[in-house]
């Protein structure tokens, strides 16, 4: 019987998403949000929340698309309200905005739900002991999620956090989600297999000591 895989979803992400892409997207989404808020200033308070929300979509979409293009992420063209998607390794990448603490809004998009069906292939990585016949995927989906406070009185010009999130096939739950600042630390960690290979057995303190007659203790 084949042994369960030791692979994990974070490992898969790190292997397929260059650090430069993750850093670039993080910066782009912050810049896009700041431009959106600056462009909305001066609008009537009754319109302001709606205007800021719409401008965030457009400005963050453009910033996301440009970052993918610069980093060979093969972005789709910008067309109206269409979702911008890119590709690095086996991962298709997209983005959306939510209010902090509310993660159901992402499911409102039929396109995002259809995209997420590809993650059926990586669901076994959550409980590898149950799937001995796991096959490395050729396609998977991850989202960059910008979380906003939900109030224009608290951090109105930028996300409270930006997370990388991998949904299940139905986009009803998350196989993995983590703030980008925490995720970036994973690039500096050695894979477990490398750590095992580099482990050297330690000799006992007196090992190799010789008696006067030349025999080794």
Topology:
Elements: H1 9-16, H2 19-40, H3 48-70, E1 86-88, E2 91-99, H4 110-116, E3 140-148, E4 161-167, E5 174-179, H5 180-183, H6 192-198
Parallel strand pairs: 2-3
Antiparallel strand pairs: 1-2, 3-4, 4-5
Helix pairs in contact: 2-3
Describe it for me?
The protein is α+β, with helices and mostly antiparallel strands and 217 residues long. It has one domain. The protein has a five-stranded mixed β-sheet with strand order 1-2-3-4-5, sandwiched between helices. Helix 2 packs antiparallel against helix 3. It is elongated. The C terminus is likely disordered.
Query: Could you tell me how far the N terminus lies from the C terminus, measured between alpha carbons in angstroms?
Result: 43 Å
Overall geometry comes to elongated
**SS field, number of helical segments:** 6
Strand content: 15-25%
Average per-residue pLDDT, rounded, comes to: 85
Our count of domains comes out at: 1
Q: How many DSSP E strands? A: 5
Identify the notable features of this structure and list them briefly.
217 residues; alpha+beta; five-stranded mixed β-sheet; elongated
Summarize this structure briefly.
33% of the residues lie in helices and 16% in strands.
